[in-house]
TrEMBL record:
The lineage of its organism: Bacteria, Bacillati, Actinomycetota, Actinomycetes, Streptosporangiales. This is 4-hydroxy-tetrahydrodipicolinate synthase. Homotetramer; dimer of dimers. It comes from Nonomuraea insulae. Catalyzes the condensation of (S)-aspartate-beta-semialdehyde [(S)-ASA] and pyruvate to 4-hydroxy-tetrahydrodipicolinate (HTPA). It is found in: Cytoplasm. It catalyses: L-aspartate 4-semialdehyde + pyruvate = (2S,4S)-4-hydroxy-2,3,4,5-tetrahydrodipicolinate + H2O + H(+). Its EC number is 4.3.3.7. It is an enzyme of class 4 (lyase). One of its GO terms (molecular function) is 4-hydroxy-tetrahydrodipicolinate synthase activity.
Amino acid sequence: MFRGIHVPLVTPFDSSGAVAVDAIEKLAHHVLDQGAAGLVALGTTGEVAALDPAERAQVIEVCARVCEERSALLTVGLTGNDTRSTARALRELPSGVHAALVTVPYFLRPGERGVIAHFEALAEESPVPLIIYHIPYRTGQAVGAGALRRLGRHPNIAGVKYAVGGIDQDTVELLGDLPEGFDVMGGDDAFVSPLLALGAAGGILASAHLETRSFVDLADAWRAGDVERARQLGSRLARLSAALFAEPNPTVIKGVLHAQGLIPTPDVRLPLVPATSEAVSQARLVAVHPGE
Ligand SMILES: O=C(O)C1=N[C@H](C(=O)O)C[C@H](O)C1
């Protein structure tokens, strides 16, 4: 189900601080024009925690409209560390949403058995397929290859957004033996190229707001076995990702998109603070001169 590059959209704000719905629509078309396979609404990059329920509904509505028009896949991010309320949020997803990206329960650290029980319960209730968001450096919860493989055998669990901060033993084991119909999507921008080389189906990458076409080419090159091209693109794009993540995501990306005239302000909501002008200039420089 998951393949190619999916862009977790930023939520732009206008000068009054309101969600700039027109800018979301423009950005959505912009990345899809460049070959993105889908959009992710309400990810970390979309500052979901700082949006109120009405704003979240607005973001989903505009993304669903664009995805419908463009025959693209819409995934919506859901973060919770309680199974009952997460199941309720899944049941309440509006139509037009094709999948839900659900974070491993954070902070609580329920252990692997708890994580398995959580996702199996959610998968039974969810009206759309789930993609597990595994990001232990944010959630505090390890989940090994065996547990992910078991979850991947559930018919309503379509994949994992894999962001363990590098390539480790579990990464290699997982990608060496994937359940049928269970896709691995790279979720650590700087490591997407090696993950694709190991057999990931694509990536959910905030960096792909910029150079979307090049990220799509990277995934295509690994799939086609064009190793030379994939390595070159991979190292160039990893430099771009490093510059875009030099300060907390999505502050630098918003700074660059604003400088390019794609969003009305670079503003983020507290506790995030806007990126420094140095970080934004450096990221713009790397985007234009990737060798520097
Ligand atoms: O919102 C997302 O989805 C992503 N979030 C990650 C993060 O903020 O750490 C980065 C990734 O590119 C996508």
